[in-house]
Design a protein that fits this description.
alpha/beta; globular; single chain; Rossmann fold; eight-stranded mixed beta sheet; 327 residues
Length: 327
């Protein structure tokens, strides 16, 4: 655990049913708090799907308009999601952190994800890092704590390397930062993304597919519902299609072995937790302790029982881990 002197401080199981193709969670104990919120439709208020603030669009580089979301009036935390997801997937964790109440936060849809458009010139992970720095500047964030997962975690490390002292601390789950010896010519994740199904008849149909097979069946009900609601857009015929198109996802994966974060880990001066789950196959969990060892003020932290989607798999537990790290 870190104390305030170490960090510059600046916060039920649901059952799913389909109603008219929309996803509903009967008995959601949080439903009433949204009933009278302005800008929230009665359908969303009744559904129990995690709700998002209205996006604030931010022009960054490469003709990208980045969708950002603010919880509360301050800027304590900046959250960066993994490839293929969107900012909404953080919603359950942010609720458990007390966003808008105990803490304030800003999350982003990375370029090409969620409501952010893709760049035709650069999907390099250094560009994702530049987007995060632009977000820090736009919100006048004074040394926030960065919370990242997978690609988003690597982007936070790249951002701190590009502009040292931006973050008070970083808490990152299984960042994709590979040593040269772990890089290979092929990229199975990119190949798989190019074959991904993009369109479903309804939210319920998408939820049924994702919840029935790996890897997204690991997600908590709330996180998966948020992804289905906000990671897709509705077509004129009522079907839904991915906002992060499969070529964009594939290109993002493909760039994961091209950035230089590994060689510059020793330049990161802020406290960093590199968290990781169970090592079921060679991958990010196995490399996480090696990343932490190269960061002067870094430490690794294993969280038993979780896979690569840990922050979306058990948001309440991850929120508790983050809170303990920085209280």
């Amino acid at each position: 655990m870190w104390t305030n002197s170490d960090v510059d401080q600046q916060g039920g199981a649901w059952q799913c049913a389909g109603v008219n193709g929309r996803v509903e969670i009967p008995g959601d104990e949080h439903r009433d708090q949204h009933q009278n919120d302005p800008g929230i439709s009665p359908a969303d208020a009744a559904s129990g799907v995690p709700l998002m603030p209205d996006p604030r669009m931010l022009a960054t580089t490469d003709d990208v308009n980045l969708a950002t979301y603010q919880y509360g009036t301050g800027q304590d935390y900046l959250l960066a999601h993994c490839t293929g997801m969107c900012a909404a997937a953080w919603s359950p964790l942010l609720e458990d952190l007390g966003a808008g109440d105990r803490i304030s936060a800003v999350s982003v849809d990375h370029r090409g994800h969620g409501r952010s458009n893709a760049s035709i010139t650069s999907m390099a992970w250094e560009a994702h890092a530049a987007d995060l720095l632009a977000t820090v500047d736009s919100y006048d964030m004074a040394k926030p704590i960065g919370i990242g997962h997978s690609m988003g975690g690597a982007a936070l490390l790249l951002a701190e390397q590009a502009r040292p002292g931006t973050f008070a601390a970083l808490w990152i789950y299984e960042p994709i930062v590979l040593p040269p010896t772990a890089r290979s010519g092929g990229n199975s994740l990119a190949d798989g993304a190019r074959r991904r199904r993009e369109t479903f008849a309804s939210e319920s149909a998408a939820y049924e597919v994702f919840s029935s097979k790996p890897p997204l069946n690991e997600l908590s009900t709330a996180a998966l519902l948020a992804y289905v609601r906000y990671g897709f857009r509705e077509l004129p015929d009522g079907s839904i299609t991915l906002r992060c198109k499969r070529d964009v996802e594939a290109n993002t994966y493909a760039m994961g072995t091209s950035h230089g974060a590994w060689a510059r880990l020793g330049e990161i001066g802020c406290p960093v937790v590199i968290a990781y789950g169970e090592e079921t196959t060679p991958g990010p969990a196995a490399i996480a302790p090696l990343i932490a060892e190269r960061i002067p003020n870094g430490r690794s932290h294993k969280i038993d029982g979780l896979g690569h989607f840990g922050p979306m798999q058990d948001p309440e537990r991850i929120a508790a881990e983050i809170t303990e790290a920085f209280d």
